Amino acid sequence: MSPTLTPTAQVELHIEVTDFYARQMPLLEQGELEAFADTFTEDCVFGYDGAWQVVGRDALLGGVRANIPRYGTSKIRHWFESRRIAVREDGVIESSATSLVSVTSEKGDVTFEPSCVVRDQLVRTEDGLRVSSRVIRHDLPDAGVYFARLAASHG
Amino acid sequence: MSPTLTPTAQVELHIEVTDFYARQMPLLEQGELEAFADTFTEDCVFGYDGAWQVVGRDALLGGVRANIPRYGTSKIRHWFESRRIAVREDGVIESSATSLVSVTSEKGDVTFEPSCVVRDQLVRTEDGLRVSSRVIRHDLPDAGVYFARLAASHG
Amino acid sequence: MSPTLTPTAQVELHIEVTDFYARQMPLLEQGELEAFADTFTEDCVFGYDGAWQVVGRDALLGGVRANIPRYGTSKIRHWFESRRIAVREDGVIESSATSLVSVTSEKGDVTFEPSCVVRDQLVRTEDGLRVSSRVIRHDLPDAGVYFARLAASHG
Q1: What is the pLDDT of residues B109-126, one digit of tens each?
Q2: Is C8 near chain A, with CB under 8 Å?
Q3: Rounded to an integer, what distance in angstroms lies between the CA atom of residue A111 and that of residue B86?
Q4: B141: distance to nearest CA of chain A, Å?
Q5: Mean predicted confidence (pLDDT) in C82-92
Q6: Chains with 3 or more CB pairs closer than 8 angstroms to C?
Q7: How far apart are CA B95 and CA B87, in angstroms?
Q8: Chain C residues near residue A11 by CB distance under 8 angstroms
Q9: From its phi and psi, is residue A97 left (phi > 0), alpha (psi between -120 and 50) or beta?
Q10: Domains in chain C, please, with CATH?
Q11: Are the C-beta atoms of residues C84 and C106 closer than 8 Å to each other?
Q12: Whether the predicted interface score ipTM is above 0.85
């Protein structure tokens, strides 16, 4: 919560931000990668602690295009909890949450990637909210080991 | 979000709809199947893409009664994410979300059914919100294969 | 929902309570056990149906300190669904939800503890909302068997 906002403004912000993610994440899940990238600012920062980090929407799109194919015929879905929202003095909205990614295989088996914390900065543009920064930190003592193992298993 | 609603009305609708599901789904989970069926309209449509689909509350109750016993002593719980809510011009509320069903065995082991998208139409009645249509689509290339395998494993 | 509250007050309460949990549960997950205990009242009741139950914040802290180490290098996260909130005539807020706990091992494998229902009573203090009572009931025919097995596997 942000002490500078009225209760009504806080509530509206909370619903607005929740709604933003409800529309953003299915784009990634459905493979609409360009539309997903368009929910970020052109100069965005996007990164996984201990793995790849990029600057700029084009680089983000490249990173996503390189990584999504490893799921093959499986379908990923994102699950969020403990969303915390605050507005900085400069108007940037800080929004962080715990997240899980489920992976449903074409046979219907479900596994999960390690839980993580997603820390976003959102800004208001004429097209609505956009992510200017996303940093994802997995709940692992050494995320690098995990990502290396992942890369190895996908050749 | 619905452009025709004020921010306040949108927020109240969002909480009202969320609260509806918070009360509806535990009825199914706790085996209160008649009370669960009563949260649908009498002429409701209910269906799983690639499997059974029914029309009418009585048929829905029959379908649920036929399917829930396969869980035996396990307990199911429903998890939702990315809830998207919009109001049509005719007043029908379109509400869709991603969903997972967890299955906790009596020994405490937890498995999940394939993730899915649940698309509801809600209408206002004198008894509050009711589901007039629910269509569930699993995140599978061929849900029919999954349901056939499920049916086979339960004789 | 509470019939005595205006829609606006209900919405603000819902967001306030959701925000409380979004800040409370990460404290436990990050091992900030004293800060977690401080989110309960000094005379709180805390218990697991079929296992340990304690009275008082100090006893709660002792119970948490005794139990959290069994996770070792794994990281737990809490997931909630179907949050139901009501205000009693005496002002106590009754808040219950379905919950899952994910356990991410240091290698990145994810398992889940049995789903459960968490029933809280929240009170307003000069420091904000505090839990005066939390009772957790796992979705198991006999939670005692589960906890005994758990205790045995951890020596």
Answers
A1: 999 999 999 999 999 999
A2: yes
A3: 31
A4: 6
A5: 96
A6: A, B
A7: 9
A8: 11-12, 15
A9: beta
A10: 7-153 (3.10.450.50)
A11: no
A12: yes
